[in-house]
Amino acid sequence: MHTDTTRENPQAVAPQAAESSQDLAATAPGQLRVIKRNGTVVPYTDDKITVAITKAFLAVEGGNAAASSRIHETVARLTEQVTATFKRRMPSGGTIHIEEIQDQVELALMRAGEQKVARDYVIYREAQANKRKSASADVAQPHPSIRVTRADGSVQPLDMGRLQTIIREACEGLAEVDGALIESETLKNLYDGVAEKDVNTALVMTARTLVEREPNYSYVTARLLMDNIRAEALGFLGIASSATHHEMADLYAKALPAYVEKGVEFELLDPKLKDYDLAKLGAALNHERDQQFTYLGLQTLYDRYFIHKDGIRFELPQVFFMRVAMGLAIEEPKNREDRAIEFYNLLSSFDYMASTPTLFNAGTLRPQLSSCYLTTVPDDLSGIYGAIHDNAMLSKFAGGLGNDWTPVRALGSYIKGTNGKSQGVVPFLKVVNDTAVAVNQGGKRKGAVCAYLETWHLDIEEFLELRKNTGDDRRRTHDMNTANWIPDLFMKRVFDDGQWTLFSPSEVPDLHDLTGKAFEERYE
Predict the structure, then answer these.
(1) Domain residue spans in the chain?
(2) Could you give the CA distance from residue 147 to residue 195 in angstroms, rounded to a whole number?
(3) Cβ atoms of 412 and 424 closer than 8 Å
(4) Fewer CB in a 10 Å sphere around the end CB: N or C, the chain?
(5) CB within 8 Å of 210: residues ≥ 6 apart
(6) Residue 266: pLDDT over 50
(7) What is the CA radius of gyration of the chain?
(8) Cα–Cα distance between 397 and 500 in angstroms, integer?
(9) Could you report the per-residue pLDDT of 272-282, keeping only the tens digit for each?
């Protein structure tokens, strides 16, 4: 007679089969699943919650409470409430971190009026968390169910020890931030075989969503982004594949000379930077100042300011500030290193910040450090297109532009050289607008141009319509700013409800250079 031994003896089930059935249950559609602290995913069961709540009551009321019907009824009711909460929140099933379940147990105890039990439960959780923190500091365990694909194609388990270290460093010294929450939410966004760079991205994205809850998460997010930046730059420089914040205390001194060497090799930095005492400057770099950044500030530096080769940023924040400082001190006749360190300390401590072109270009082969250039456009075709050419070249190296177009004759004015009539200022401003779009400050930000015109210019009415979204688009400049120079006399006429006369500058060439009483006498 055939006997089914697995029915008669449940212990006879092979361990592998038991694990397999548990995995299937954990991943079945519509099921609630639990992420344990070691990262494994298991099916959600009421029994574990019942046991946890029962232990909490026994710890407060003693062993005799185990036989109390009141305790049994209370535990059953609270368990049902916790489970109902998750089923209501995830009707189609989903994944819950173990910490979320414990939060709901704590909340259920408080709502049931069991404050003493809830308080002891909170204290117990905190004590256990401290134990785990101490243990994790000693032993870094890889994640058992999530494997990471590295850049070279190799696969290895997710290094939970390093993940927790990065999060812990990011939260250091900040109030009202929760590293455990960042960890649990990040793990929800990972999958088996995830790319190594996507793990770092998931950390940053998780922390970024918490900024609206607590502003200090902006610093946490910046520090997590710093880990990505360190890995990218140090890997490119051949110093390390990655590094923690505390490890940078030693690595920054190595990074500066390697960075200068690479920058000069790729013709991105001024070779004169190699003449500095790089060991002295490297020793002056303060890695703690990396912690001062908010997320938006650091992301902006990464996107626009850090020097890169083929899209890879190999400039770290403190190296960036030192590069600017070295560029500013490069012509100092003596004690260049001391002056550079002084500049560096001002910049890196945020006590002073240089203009954008200085941050872009100092220490490079094109050290254009000025922010703005103001020009007057002459009233001839060569001068007009010469001014547009100057705009393009200045914008190329991050200069902002202000053009005075008042001398250019107005629409309909006579042109002696061709015996024709002028098209006025507006068609040329369309060319200026499109040039600003085409030459976008070295690819780092949009070109910035502002056109100026005096109020008495005959084209002033069309000039004031340049930024409108309606009308002939050939006579619109959507990407540049406009400014109207208003003399005191015009405002006097406004207050007196008087008349205002418009002129072409070709008729009154001297009017533009006059101010005050001289202007009023000539105008009238």
Answers:
(1) 20-138, 142-361, 372-523
(2) 9
(3) yes
(4) N
(5) 177, 181, 182, 217, 220
(6) yes
(7) 34
(8) 41
(9) 999 999 999 99
Give the burial string for 70-79 (b: 16+ CB within 10 Å, else e): ebeebbeebb
Spatial distance between the Cα atoms of 447 and 403, rounded to a whole number of angstroms: 13
Bridge partners, residue 195, by sequence:
149
Q: How far apart are CA 194 and CA 430, in angstroms?
A: 49
Would you say the pTM of this structure is higher than 0.90?
Answer: no
pLDDT in tens, 121-167: 888 888 888 877 676 555 445 555 788 898 888 888 888 888 999 99
Is 23 within 8 Å of 43 (Cβ atoms)?
no
| Alpha helices (runs of H) in 62-159, residue ranges in sequence order | 69-89, 98-111, 115-138
421: number of Cβ within 10 Å: 12
Each residue's pLDDT tens digit, 327-341: 999 999 889 999 999
Instruction: Report yes or no: 170 and 224 within 8 Å, Cβ to Cβ.
Output: yes
Mean pLDDT of the chain: 86
Please tell me the total number of residues recorded for the chain in this structure.
Answer: 524
Residue 265 CB burial class (10 angstroms; 0-12, 13-18, ≥19): exposed
Reading the block at residue 491, the tokens are: 């405002």
